Amino acid sequence: MTPPAIVERALAEGLGMIAVCDHNSARNAAAVQEAAGARLAVLAGMEITTVEECHVVALFPDAAAAQAAGAEVGATLGQIDDGYGTFFGEQRVLAADGGERARETLALATATTLDVEAAVELVHGHGGLAIAAHIDRRSFGVIGQLGLFPAAAGFDAVELSRHVAAGSPDEARFAVHGLPMVYSSDAHYQSDIGAARTVVYCERPTFAELALALAGADGRSVGDA
Amino acid sequence: MKLEDIARELGLTELTPEVTGNAEAEIERGYASDLLSDVLAHAPEGGVLITLQVHLNVIAVASHAELAAVIFAGDRRPDDDVRAKAVAEAVSLFVSPADTFDIVGRLYALGVKGNHA
Fold it and tell me: pTM of the entire structure?
């Protein structure tokens, strides 16, 4: 997945806004924003792995905030060793044209030392939104890892995976947490892009508007696609 | 075997001395898992849990599953709020420098068994 390929696929899928959320890193977000230009709204994000091995989707107001948060997250990770790439793949930092700028040497596939509460606090500290990732999944979602939804952590929304049908009893099961529900593809491959989507009722596709929609403020809201 | 005897035999450090009601409890069953949703579904009532998780939800899950005690493996220690919640819920907490495998092995040798023994 290169920045141009991600943008083309998202446009072909008819998406109006995407978020780039590498595991425990925000180093590729700006390149995708640059590749998109004015054609597609691209949020700078990150998928943080907490010490409990819960995934937290973090979305930031801009790439600089994401980078700053990413640096704090990265400071809790160890370095990769020889066998790492064989199992987890190469960690390329790409330019807007898809060329390789650098290789990340932090072990991004491992857990950070942040617990769920600390991760949410870190995200909020950089002006971001913290979303409990794929809470329907048995592994790496907060409910799977922690048994019960950690209401006190202060999440802004919960994310459901493509495996939950919109409007299904399954979906209703997760509505009980009283937080807005978003669907996203969690795309690890280009072909995943657009596999799940959320309708955001707002003025324009921006971080600020999304924040209003998740808060249900000023007539903005989110709903099923 | 009584919980206090298990603690002594395994050299566990007790984190909740305020919880006195469980010392004499007979522990017959145990469960080891780090997925708390799995603990909630399968841990045996009155049993002991061995886990690496030190999140506050361990106490909620242990209380709901009516466990007598939790042993944190690998010298992982919970924060004070977790300990306080355990005291309030009368769940005894222990910590051991040993890893999960060794703790379970020693419990088994003392006659504490799993759900399928």
Answer: 0.91
